[in-house]
Amino acid sequence: MSRPVLILGGTGEARALAARLMDDGVPVISSLAGRVADPKLPEGEVRVGGFGGVGGLVGWLAEHRPRAIVDATHPFAAQISRHAVEAAERAGVPLVRLLRPAWTAIEGDQWVAVPDIAAAADAVVSSSASRVLLTTGRQDVGAFAGIDRQWFLIRVVDPPTAALPTNHRVLRSRGPYGLSDERELLRQNEIDLLVTKNSGGELTRAKLVAARELGIAVIMVARPPESAQHVLSTVEEAAEFVRE
Ligand code: NAP
């Protein structure tokens, strides 16, 4: 049997790549962090849970001897991406980063760019908005804890465990989201500020279009710096890299 490809996953692109490689007859092992209680599983073999830092990942690579690593994790999953670069180098395994392009503002968008989540929380507090849609994900909501000037609609897949803003409602849902639903959500909840990370991609883009149409400002959290040298932006390109 040919050597597998390790896909560091947790994204739609990672699942698409696993399906694509399996179709091509390339065995894959997809790795998930285990953060989501009921994750969408990719085709092929799946392992769940952290590796135990760079050393743990180096050990895993020595044991399983993948032919390549595709880091298809979320653009904000900076730690595992850093670990992957270091471990791949130490183990001598080729690595490529599959990274969807960031969103960019177009005419009509009212974006406030901030460098990180803490700055996003500061920007909310100093804004004149009163009703905020927070879509930064469960792990980041803690940065908004204790804010009492605004009401928050907090959209998450799994319930947050961190402390939350004083006035809020938690809305549990999982994308993809369509434009008419996003428009309705913003209107019904009288949202006047959207907070999001610059995740990029199509599955959650509709909220930005709806915000533009309704004249709603967006606090856009910039991506962390990228660790990998070799970065590709499409599943096709990543599949091609593996074939070569
Ligand atoms: P992170 O901060 O970069 O990583 C923290 C630790 O979690 C890593 O050191 C590693 O533990 C473990 N880990 C992360 N991704 C892993 C994977 N695919 N397989 C095995 N272990 C993994 O990661 P994160 O931002 O918490 O994201 C966790 C997962 O959720 C990723 O798979 C990512 O693609 C997905 N995700 C993240 C976001 C986001 O906004 N951050 C959004 C959607 C999906 P060890 O050091 O023990 O190996």
Describe the structure concisely for a colleague:
This protein is of the alpha/beta class and 244 residues long. It has helices at 12-23, 53-64, 78-91, 117-126, 179-188, 206-214, 235-243; strands spanning 5-8, 28-32, 45-48, 68-71, 95-98, 111-114, 131-134, 151-156, 167-172, 193-197, 217-221, 231-232. The two termini are 18 Å apart.
Short key terms for the protein model shown above:
single chain, 244 residues, alpha/beta, six-stranded parallel beta sheet, binds NADP nicotinamide-adenine-dinucleotide phosphate
Provide a descriptive summary of the structure in words.
The protein has 244 residues and is α/β, with parallel strands linked by helices. The chain has 7 helices and 12 strands. It has a 6-stranded parallel sheet with strand order 3-2-1-4-5-12, sandwiched between helices. Strands 6-11-10-7-8-9 form a 6-stranded parallel sheet. Strand 10, helix 6 and strand 11 form a beta-alpha-beta unit. Helix 1 crosses helix 7, helix 2 crosses helix 3 and helix 5 packs across helix 6. The longest helix is centred in the middle third of the chain and has 14 residues. The protein is elongated, with a radius of gyration of 19 Å. The two termini are 18 Å apart. The model has no long low-confidence stretch (mean pLDDT 97).
Write the layout of secondary structure elements.
Elements lengths: L4 E4 L3 H12 L4 E5 L12 E4 L4 H12 L3 E4 L6 H14 L3 E4 L12 E4 L2 H10 L4 E4 L16 E6 L10 E6 L6 H10 L4 E5 L8 H9 L2 E5 L9 E2 L2 H9 L1
Parallel strand pairs: 1-2, 1-4, 2-3, 4-5, 5-12, 6-11, 7-8, 7-10, 8-9, 10-11
Helix pairs in contact: 1-7, 2-3, 5-6
The structure holds NADP nicotinamide-adenine-dinucleotide phosphate.
The site of NADP nicotinamide-adenine-dinucleotide phosphate has 24 residues, from β2, α2 and α3.
